[in-house]
Amino acid sequence: MKNILVIGSTGQIGSELTMELRKRYGNEHVIAGYIPSAPPTDVLMESGPSEVVDITCTDMILDVVKKYHIDAIYNLAALLSVVAESKPQLAWHIGIDGLFNVLEIARHYNCSVFTPSSIGSFGLDTPHVKTPQDTIQRPRTMYGVTKVTTELVSDYYYNKYGVDTRAVRFPGIISNVTPPGGGTTDYAVDIYYSAVKGEEFVCPIKEGTLMDMMYMPDALHAAISLMEADPSRLVHRNAFNIASMSFAPETIYAEIKKHKPDFKMRYEVDPLKQSIADSWPDSLDDTCARNEWDWKPQYNLETMTKDMLEKLSARLK
Ligand code: SER
């Protein structure tokens, strides 16, 4: 990988992934693609090149790929699960029409492509405990529909045209930098902000609802190490289960309370978020990722909580 384009570089994952890629490959080699309604922060803007790249516009992607001799594309443009339910056509347009734009350019300009899938690609019929790598995927959300389609179309381009597509299924991602917007797992980020601000947390997800989660440093490491992996070892491509922790609201609350004994939480369940959460796995089996490219997370709930509280407390002071 010499020159990398990140599409969606100002989003929840993109903003940190772009900085991490710049650290590893050099600032000038990582182009931050963004849309004008989500402009880059000063840090992103000043640390390397950036360009307006709307994934729904083939020419914009093409111009940047040619201008910077791009050979790898991290495609992070997407609407999260709850927002996608209110704008299903737009979710498809960005997620799938956009993906075709990226893959067609990748095919002609020889780029590798990372387009993440998600725990949202599973559905009610999926085995929920230790969900296997290869299993039933019949989601009922538009987010999930676009993610399963992403997996299939990405594999199609690999098998038919030899495009080097690879991806992981991200769990809920927790970070102290860019907040998520409109996802089902957002509560697990919001709860830390409430704890640090000394506010009561109103939890939209019911007690006992297990979902897979991951701390951002592990998520970034997963994406980059999969893209660096020896292709001869990859049996799977789109997309790998990865896992590091699975918890319900009461468990993360109890962990935060160890540091903030006065912290209060009450439940006010959001029916849409709850129905989406109920259709997703309790925990994923990530054996294939461990065997095929040595995936191994660094953080668990305890170490993540300590780090989240320290970083957020310093920033929100
Ligand atoms: N974090 C995403 C969401 O909640 C799941 O991949 O929509």
Task: Write a structural description.
It is a single chain. This protein has 317 residues and is α/β, with parallel strands linked by helices. The chain has twelve helices and 14 strands. The strands form four sheets. Strands 3-2-1-4-5-7 form a six-stranded parallel sheet, with helices on both faces. The longest helix is centred in the N-terminal third of the chain and has 22 residues, at 88-109. Bound molecules: serine. Serine (SER) binds at residues 80-81, 118-120, 143, 170, 172, 183-185.
Give the arrangement of secondary structure elements:
Blueprint: E1 4-7, H1 14-25, E2 30-34, H2 42-47, E3 50-52, H3 58-67, E4 72-75, H4 81-86, H5 88-109, E5 112-114, E6 117-118, H6 142-161, E7 165-166, E8 168-170, E9 172-174, H7 187-197, E10 201-203, E11 211-215, H8 216-228, E12 240-241, E13 245-247, H9 249-259, E14 265-267, H10 271-279, H11 287-293, H12 301-316
Parallel strand pairs: 1-2, 1-4, 2-3, 4-5, 5-7, 6-8, 8-12, 9-11, 10-14
Antiparallel strand pairs: 11-13
Helix pairs in contact: 3-5, 5-6, 7-9, 7-12, 9-12
The structure holds serine (SER).
